[in-house]
Amino acid sequence: MTSLRFKAVEAASKKRPLEVAVPSERPSEYYAKYVFNQEKMFKYLPLSTYTKLREAIDEGTPLTMEVANEVADGMKRWAIENGVTHCTHWFQPLTEGTAEKHDAFVEHDRKGGMIENFSGKELIQQEPDASSFPNGGIRSTFEARGYSAWDPSSPVFIIGDTLMIPTVFISYTGEALDYKAPLKKALAALDKAATAVAQYFYPNVTKVTANLGWEQEYFLVDEDLYGARPDLMLTGRTLMGHDSAKNQQMNDHYFGAIPERVAEFMKDLEIQALELGIPCKTRHNEVAPNQFELAPIFEECSLAVDHNMLLMSLMRKIAKKHGFHCLLHEKPFAGINGSGKHNNWSLTTDTGTLLHGPGKTPEDNLRFAVFIVESLMAVYKHNGLLKASIISASNAHRLGANEAPPAIISAFLGRQITEILRKIEESTTEELFNIEGRHGIKLDIPQIPEIMVDNTDRNRTSPFAFTGNRFEFRAVGSSANCAAAMIVLNTAMAEALTLFKQRVDALIEGGQSIIGAVLDVLREDIKACKPIVFEGNGYSDEWKEEANRRGLDCETSVPLIIDRYLLPSSIKMFEDMNVMHKNELEARDEIKWETYQKRIQIESRVLGDLCMNHIIPVATKYQTVLVDNVQKIQSAFSTEDAKRLTSYNIDLIEKINVHTNTIAEQADKMVEARKQANLIENIREKAIAYHDNIVPYLEEIRRHIDKLELIVEDEMWTLPKYRELLFIR
Ligand SMILES: NC(=O)CC[C@H](N)C(=O)O
């Protein structure tokens, strides 16, 4: 069996780039080819239907069944022209993936034949009968029905022979069972709160949209090598593997020339993504060997979430075609960079103002300061909850090292913004107002240059960094659904702005001018949110101590971080902003604890198997070779010479013994610990037991395996090594 590794290495080394046929049209021409976008709506729908659908999209007015039927009819014509035979509701259950169940267009024509039909009812609502989606106890099996309902603001698209209809997924009793439903509500709450505050400065604003630009990091590993690593296949990460002598220390991969096989994969991916309307912009080698990144142009948040989910599934599929496996795990390899999905977040008004961007007038800059400071208030007040929104069994491995932020949420502002906030805080309203001749008053807030030198993503240890006209939430993990983080961030921002407005309005009612009232409350908040601002090295031990003193959430245990969804401040925020009720939050936490516990359970089982079926047998076999050698030397030489000649191998034999014994012993204890943990009924307690009692074994066992990897003869080692996984492409 040793040969599986070498066969895989050989097969992988022989692979050549798979040349991709590039469409004859330009990207701008095939962009959104498979999306039922505005252009297609206009072409395939009667004008009155088109207008009503646009109203539903822009203003959220519900569609009547009559209009839905007309829309379905137009969609069907477009779909059939593209060879489509099936349709499905496409939704985002709480599994981190997406779900679909295809139905063919066909129906009996009552004359013994078939017709192809697609009705408005099928478009707007389905009842996926599967009761097996995670529901955290909300949906008991006797009411197993869940509804999926079309969200007209997310465009319908085609994949292969199927018309994909993006939907929200809710229970029979109306609770959200997915990421999309609460995201939509969070965005609505944000729109309402941000519009009201933006109107202090720009009375014409009627809508505020949250933007999201994600950066997807990923690894590509040759599929043959992947197939020879049971841990990668079953857990998405390597549970063992000694460092490669060369890894990322030369910094020669980052932004280097893209390897040819990978370049063809990227080309293929981008063509298909563009055809689905994903505006791919950037591609490059990331820091770790065999690590890469793709980032599109930012989009409206909910659409960006759909596009990221879609992209992740395209990546997995297209990678296979090119003989790769795409790893989206946050930390597939120990000791080198992991993969994040930095979420660039900003707000824009329907009048075209970027609320997180500086402007030209002093009023613009006051508005800018308000939106920056209220973002900080949101992050400060809910820093523990924000951490809960990004934490998972896999992301926990990534945080705190190799350019990923630590498990303490803080915000980075940069020198210029800090200076502006200090000036506002320290000046009185009178000082900030300049009487400007007959034109009345002028605000004396310093100009902010559009390019802020220290606001690139230079502070890579900051989880929430201001980068010039947006915040970059860097803590989000590569495999996550961005919606989890975006639900919390947008809801927290909605709450911060609502509270801001309440206080400003109270001052205005008391006779203050608008600007004066805004300044007073802003000054209060600049002071209040200071503990969240941190410009230094997030990895240092001093920061951990300092953050603790500042009262920031420093918890590192995943099951305990998950608790933060049920803090009184979290429940109040979600309920006040009408995003989720307590029972929905409880259900989500149940799912999170269960997912965590199961992932650790799987890792622990896989590692147990690897120990028994690979590591110990291989090490013992090599030990026998050594023993054989020792015996032969002893029979050929004098006792004295033999002692000298065998001392090195005898030492190795003993070392192997120590490691294999420890591995066997620890693996037994790990099984015992699992048995104990499995007796626990309460899912939170069980997750805690897995975290406290099983995870340490995974680490300890790995340490001994990695030592053995250095001792055992290379030819005998059955599992592809880090150098092979990371450098063959
Ligand atoms: N260049 C980078 O920004 C590296 C980011 C890093 N891979 C992360 O985990 O977030």
UniProtKB/TrEMBL annotation:
It comes from the Bacteria. Coiled coil: none annotated. GO terms for molecular function: glutamine synthetase activity. Residues 179-615 form the GS catalytic domain. GO terms for biological process: glutamine biosynthetic process. Pfam families: Gln-synt_C (PF00120), Gln-synt_C-ter (PF18318), GSIII_N (PF12437). Residues 82-174 form the GS beta-grasp domain. Belongs to the glutamine synthetase family. This is Glutamine synthetase type III. It comes from Pseudoprevotella muciniphila.
